[in-house]
Amino acid sequence: xxxxxxxxxxxxxxxxxxxxxxxxxxxxxxxxxxxxxxxxxxxxxxxxxxxxxxxxxxxxxxxxxxxxxxxxxxxxxxxxxxxxxxxxxxxxxxxxxxxxxxxxxxxxxxxxxxxxxxxxxxxxxxxxxxxxxxxxxxxxxxxxxxxxxxxxxxxxxxxxxxxxxxxxxxxxxxxxxxxxxxxxxxxxxxxxxxxxxxxxxxxxxxxxxxxxxxxxxxxxxxxxxxxxxxxxxxxxxxxxxxxxxxxxxxxxxxxxxxxxxxxxxxxxxxxxxxxxxxxxxxxxxxxxxxxxxxxxxxxxxxxxxxxxxxxxxxxxxxxxxxxxxxxxxxxxxxxxxxxxxxxxxxxxxxxxxxxxxxxxxxxxxxxxxxxxxxxxxxxxxxxxxxxxxxxxxxxxxxxxxxxxxxxxxxxxxxxxxxxxxxxxxxxxxxxxxxxxxxxxxxxxxxxxxxxxxxxxxxxxxxxxxxxxxxxxxxxxxxxxxxxxxxxxxxxxxxxxxxxxxxxxxxxxxxxxxxxxxxxxxxxxxxxxxxxxx
Length: 533
Prior knowledge:
Blueprint lengths: L25 H7 L13 H12 L1 H16 L4 H24 L5 H9 L3 H22 L2 H8 L12 H23 L3 H27 L23 H8 L1 H6 L5 H4 L7 H30 L6 H16 L1 H34 L7 H4 L11 H19 L3 H29 L20 H20 L3 H4 L7 H4 L1 H19 L25
Helix pairs in contact: 2-9, 2-13, 2-15, 3-10, 3-13, 3-14, 3-15, 4-13, 4-19, 5-6, 5-15, 5-18, 6-15, 6-17, 6-18, 6-22, 7-15, 8-15, 8-17, 9-13, 9-15, 14-15, 15-17, 18-19, 18-22
């Protein structure tokens, strides 16, 4: 099948080889260059685009949930493994910024890979990110149980939180409520989704700044505490370094999904510039806030050897140092951040499903890619992702080890999906095909002469981080009885299932249906010449 420019109408064209329609506005021309009609609503503002990208990573929620986990592993030095993972992911983000500047369209990772390669690789990149959406949504909704009953005991609707069964049931209930509300909002016009998310980001930034300032005002020691390990690392392979590798997974749970701004590029003006800026600003902003929060918390801990720090984490430290009132403010802020993250994760998942479905690459493609004439929103993908997430929460009632296993596995699949972009991009660089010659000298985000060495580092980093995430550690994936082998090897089994089922569907169905649906097909082929004018 011919994927190149000049292919028969409806086939999946690459950008740049057909006639230009000079009547198109510049932003719409960037979509038309890929063979599509502009269907989505370009009403998302600059801050809203940044906010959705920032919310996906949700730094306050990450440290609220995982501070105790990191402290148990590496003590106050947890900032360094988290920072190391950020550094690796920042390299990936820079590569993605360059791609976002060229192809700021829904289904970012899928469409990028499609422009760089063809067939199974591009399809698998999108498939893995599609599956990531409901799992990440569940991971973001689960903290509702840790937050809401602590703010108001009546939120424990089912039995007592001391009963494991009641706890799991109430977790599913609260998490499902959060997901249902997020799904309803994501069925609205994208401008309204952005406004809802703007509120959550402003609240998260405000609460984060308040807690950081107050903790810095109550220090018990100097910033030198950040290099203290408290003798951690015993019992791990490679000692402290082994614990360091596990603790770096905190960064893995936060720093991914940074293609979100590009996937929302069809719904904002000037996406070639806005999308890369949103990615960089969200990454750097998240790192600065997270680093300040961890530093302030480490300095303010009354006793570093207090076992409750590892058990109860950041809320315990805030409550001990600043009192229950500020602790409750932190809880409320963390919940707002969690809700914002669910909005952003679902919004990104919707765009990935839409991007693949309009190429007839998913089941129920026409229904999944349908755009409401009234709101210009894509509704069915939001409902599908929401229902899948609620189903996972129901499974969690009977087996609470399943969610952590598939969450870690899903993050590993994200790293592998990113490799399906970075490896073809590296090949294109080595062949002199990137950046596209027609784009030389254009005012877009470019890595210039640093592109090739950075791309090599990104590929090496992607392989190393995926192996670290999939490594079958008993202490991480099978810590509680019953010690079934398939829990410990759950991430690897999940990966095999994803690749196997995805490959089966691709070769039996998707490969023979690779065409743009009529509703989304641009009648005339268009090149990117106008985009670069």
